Amino acid sequence: MAYVVTEACIACRYGECVAVCPQDAFHGGPNFVVINPATCANCSLCEMVCPVKAIVAATDLAPDQKAYRELNAELAAVWPVVRELQPLPDADANAFETTKRHRLIVP
Ligand code: SF4
Ligand code: SF4
């Protein structure tokens, strides 16, 4: 089992999760990060530090977030590993917006 980054991270991407991951399991795109299920060690450190509760154990995903399990795996295969990130400029304004899947940028 791995952890999964869900919709709350889109356009927010504070980056605390990336800094604590001992496995380099995070991969980053323009306005979202994902967890590589092949490298995640299931330690839960990232879940504890995410300020918007965007990171959820794969087995605990809400029904409307289940698609993010596959999306994390798909994007981790094409996005580079990230080891540090700065928050996006409008992160605070976007942090608690609940419906923002349409804002995900996939180059
Ligand atoms: S800490 Fe949360 S909001 Fe920030 S990049 Fe990680 S998952 Fe996204
Ligand atoms: S659960 Fe641990 S190993 Fe997996 S992504 Fe989070 S910090 Fe990294």
In total, the number of strands is 4
Which term fits the overall shape? globular
CATH topology: Alpha-Beta Plaits
> CATH class, please?
Alpha Beta
Report on this model:
- This protein is α+β, with helices and mostly antiparallel strands and 107 residues long.
- The chain has one domain (3-81): 2-Layer Sandwich (Alpha-Beta Plaits), CATH 3.30.70.20.
- 22% of the residues lie in helices and 11% in strands.
- The protein has four helices and four strands.
- The protein has helices spanning 16-20, 45-49, 67-76, 91-94; strands at 3-5, 26-28, 33-35, 55-57.
- The protein has a two-stranded antiparallel sheet with strand order 1-4. The chain has a two-stranded antiparallel sheet with strand order 2-3.
- A hairpin with a 4-residue loop joins β2 and β3.
- The structure holds iron/sulfur cluster (SF4) (2 copies).
- One iron/sulfur cluster (SF4) binds next to α2.
Short descriptors:
107 residues; alpha+beta; Alpha-Beta Plaits; two-stranded antiparallel ribbon; 4 strands; binds iron/sulfur cluster
Summed up, what is this model?
This protein is α+β, with helices and mostly antiparallel strands and 107 residues long.
Blueprint (SSEs and pairs):
Layout: E1 3-5, H1 16-20, E2 26-28, E3 33-35, H2 45-49, E4 55-57, H3 67-76, H4 91-94
Antiparallel strand pairs: 1-4, 2-3
Bound molecules: iron/sulfur cluster (SF4) (2 copies).
